[in-house]
Amino acid sequence: MSQADLTKMSEKAAIRVDELPIFAPDLDAVHEYQFIGLNNRDSRSRPFHLLRTTLSKRLKEKNYRLVGITSATPAAGKSFLSMNLAASLAQVVDDPVFLVDLDLRRASLARDIGLDVNRGISDFLTGDVSDLPSIAIRIEGSNLTLFPTKRVSNNTAELVSGTNFDHLINSLREQTGQSIILFDLPPAFANDDTMLILEKLDSYIMVVDSGETNRRQVQDMLVMLDPVPCAGTILNRYRGGFGDSYGYGYGASSYTKYYD
Ligand SMILES: Nc1ncnc2c1ncn2[C@@H]1O[C@H](COP(=O)(O)OP(=O)(O)OP(=O)(O)O)[C@@H](O)[C@H]1O
Ligand SMILES: [Mg+2]
């Protein structure tokens, strides 16, 4: 399929978020997962306010709209941060915010908020689903729309380097106006999915797990993902002078600045 065909297929009307199915997260599941970005009155959401302000400013400055969230080590908090950050961002930006689960092997966003998924991004990538809005779910009471996925066990590199993946990214770019789209990704060193996906996005955020991710891993990751620009780093689970008492800090410039 040529680039012109792809563009043509993508030239559809904007995704109308007010017409999407709505999901009200299960309160127990949300509590367990600490999905706190939606609730302004929860004091734990405060650090996300700081993060969202810094991040939205930077994305605007740089004109980045499609942003992946990844880390060197597993379980660094990517999914936790992408969900909470997306929910928190959705409270302040004018356009709807989209969150896409692209951790195809270990997809967790739907499960973590208690949503059963029959079909999702992986079905779009295999060609079983062709209508993108049909897999989108709006989170109740928010300006946040989730594209969940069902886990797949193999051939994920083929899925994220195929024509349907280009179609997915083109469609998202064309049909979401000026919206920010965050992508929850696998750890960068887990397989080549992250590298392949990021080639098509504008930028990425690196989650650094305090005490787990070491300096060498961060440097290797910056090199491996080059030339995709890093929009910033989030230092997760940090209990110390940087960031705040809840354990998140955002670095808008190069990571090494904090460690040199
Ligand atoms: N700052 C934090 N405060 C409290 N809980 C956190 C924090 N960061 C992560 N967690 C919890 O740690 C666990 C692992 O986080 P998460 O699933 O977001 O990591 P991940 O990087 O997406 O992992 P994977 O590499 O498997 O995709 C989750 O239960 C999450 O709720
Ligand atoms: Mg995850």
Q: Which key phrases capture this entry?
A:
alpha/beta, binds adenosine-5'-triphosphate, 260 residues, binds magnesium ion, disordered C terminus, 10 helices, Rossmann fold, 35% helix
Mean pLDDT: 86
Q: Largest sheet at a glance?
A: 9 strands, mixed
What is the succession of H and E elements? HEHHEHEHHEEHHEHEHEE
CATH architecture: 3-Layer(aba) Sandwich
Structural class based on helices, strands and sheet pairing: alpha/beta
CATH class: Alpha Beta
Fraction of residues in H or I helices: 25-40%
Discrete helix count? 10
The named CATH superfamily: P-loop containing nucleotide triphosphate hydrolases
Number of domains: 1
Instruction: Let me know the number of strands.
Output: 9
Any idea what the radius of gyration is? 17 Å
Quaternary assembly: single chain
Stretches where pLDDT is under 50 for at least 5 consecutive residues are: 241-246, 252-260
